[in-house]
Every structure is written in C-alpha cells, then in structure tokens.
Amino acid sequence: MTMTLPAKKDRVNTKLAALWPVLVARQDDYLAAHGRYWQGLLTHGILPIDDDDPLPDQLARTPKEQPGVHVQDWRAMLPELDGKPLPMALQVHTYGAPDGDGWWAEAHILYQGIHRRRMKGAGPLAARFTRGWHKVFDPVL
Amino acid sequence: MSMMQIGLGIWGSTPRSIHPILDAMTVYWEIDEFSDGSSAVARANSFPKRSALVDINTVPSYADAWGNVAALTAANAEKFASTESSIFAATADREIWLWARPSASGASIDVVASKDDGSTNRDWSIQYEFASEKFRAVIFNTSNNNFVVYSTVAAKDTWHLVSLRLDITGSRIGISVDAGAYTYTTVTGTPRQTISNFSVGGYELNNSYTFDGRLAACGAVNGFLAPASLSWLYSAGRPRTFVEIQSFTG
Prior knowledge:
The complex is a heterodimer of chains A (141) and B (250).
Chain A: H1 5-34, H2 74-77, E1 89-97, E2 100-111, E3 114-122, E4 131-135
Chain B: H1 3-12, E1 25-29, E2 54-56, E3 61-64, E4 67-72, E5 79-81, E6 94-102, E7 109-116, E8 122-129, E9 134-140, E10 146-153, E11 160-167, E12 172-177, E13 183-186, E14 198-200, E15 213-222, H2 227-235, H3 242-247
Antiparallel strand pairs in B: 1-15, 2-5, 3-4, 4-15, 5-14, 6-11, 6-15, 7-8, 7-14, 8-9, 9-10, 11-12, 12-13
C-alpha cells in the first residue's frame, strides 16, 4: 500500500532538513572559490514515483553553453548523494537580482500521477523562492 | 495675477502631446545588458519604479547585429522573473510584446512569456509550438477552462516580433507575429487573475518548458498598440531602444 501523501512529504522533508545545511555550506565554499553560486540540474531522469526511492541517475549532468562557468556536477558538489536512494529529485537554481545573487533548491516528487514540489531559497530573494509543497502543471498540450 | 493664473502659467500653458506608445506603456525591458555567462545579470526596466528582470540560472548574452540579446538554453532552465503582477492582469485591455527567436530544444512547447506560475496560479502565457512553428497564447478563466489561439506560421531560428492582445472588453485574446494581422479566439467566463508574476522565457515556478533561443525587448501597454505603432516597432527589423520609442511620433 502506498504511503499517504503527508507521510511521503514528511519523509522528503526530513531528508531535506539534513541536506540543507550541507548544501548551504557547500554553496558558500563554491561562491568563495568561483565568485558565483552553483547550479545543479535535476538529479533524476524520472521523478521518484509514490513510495519509490530511486538512485539519482543524473548526477553527472552540468549546465551547458555557459562558457565562463566553472563546471561542477552533483558528485563533486554533494557526493553524499552518489549511489544513495532518494525519495525526491533535487534541483538547484541560481539567480541574479538588483539586490544581489542567490540560489534556491527544489525537491520534486510524483505522487499518484501529480507532480509536486517545494522550494527553499537563500540570498536576498530567499522569501520569494521559498514555497511549501505545491502542484506543478505542464502547458496545455 | 491670481495664484491660479500663476499656476496655469507654469503648468498649464503648454499642453503635453499624447505619445502614441509611451503614455500607455507600463514596462519596457530592453534585455540588452551584457553577460558572458559567468554570472547572472539582472536586466533593467526602462521604468525605474518597475521591477527589473531577475536572471534565473545565468542567461548569457548573444551579440546580435544590433547589440546584446538574451541567449537562453532550455536544458539549464534559464529564464527571467519579475515582480510585476497587476499590470499584466487580464482585468483590462492590455498588449504585451517581445522579440523571440526560437530554437529547437527538443520540447514540443517552449514558454516565451507568462503570467502563470505553472502551478495553481495560472492566468495566461505566450508559447511557441515547434511542430506547427507557430506562437500561441493560452488563457485560463476562473472555471479553469483554457482558451488557445495560434499565430500565423513563424519559422524557428528566425527573429519574430510577437504581440499578445488581452482584449478583455471584447472577451477575446489575439496574437500577432511580425506586425501582421491578429488572430483571435473568444474567451468565455471571467479571465483568471492570480498572484502570479510576469516572467520571460518560462513559467514563474515550473522550470520545465523554458525557452530555448534568443529573446529581446519586452514591453507592455494598457490598452492596445495602434497598428502604426506595432508596424513601427517591427519595421526596423530589430528591437527598438527605449530612446527610439521616446522619439517616436506616430
């Protein structure tokens, strides 16, 4: 029997709570070394479905066509994820705003066919890029 | 001479002429700032009290013949976010335009601009459909029904001026490419008006279907552009600078 949605969210939230301070520290290190925050593409090719905890299979992906950017993948940034099953897919985005630069992390799940996500931000627009769990819809196709 | 006469002498004696675009204009982002891709660069609004565009995931510049434009890579989920919401709301007649040069990203649809968070706050969006090589606009009503209108064919890998009319008075939306005739579709019910913010190159929150290609010069007016104004915006074959718009006399 599939766990309930609140249980699934709790499971992801617990994982995120452990990863967040690690990611914050690594981002600070990355900023100090490279002058910008790090962007991490989606860790999974297919979002974790219901109770599944799939291995993150996209850890080697890096942003492309950004010639001035120091390339670093998830394995270098957060090796703790390598080879470990995850209840959610992760993604890290960066931003540049008039008030300064920042970043946010996203957790994605597919629960009973519905794509859901939560976001947590850092930097001057942290509040804007922090959202609780919400549904994600694709375009009308 | 009374104080009123003095006042009229200072402020009222030379009536200001009506500018064909500026008087109704609410925002204009030229998106011509340089970015070599090594760091994110916010894009300024020509109306300083309005929101700049926040650069999401580092949008590099491409030096086109007329200057810098934004070069977005969909695989990186690159896009721009504003904090403008009400001035793009489908509560009154408005027109929004920008220059776009779509490239094949592998997705069936790319989002060009939107007031739609890709979540629960969905108002409207401008998209590009690769199969048909047409731009299209999608709007939702308060019953969550959607209405779609397609432009005429607009080849990919080519610059186009795409313009969306939110014709609330006429209960319809229309889309024009390269200053051509608008195609319209009727919208029944009340268009949705949510808290979602205007974004360029994607939805506000959903990071899928981000635009792949180049974008430049995005503007909006309350009401509609006059046909002569739209033609003028297109006639240079490149985005007009804000200074040029200020000099336009219709």
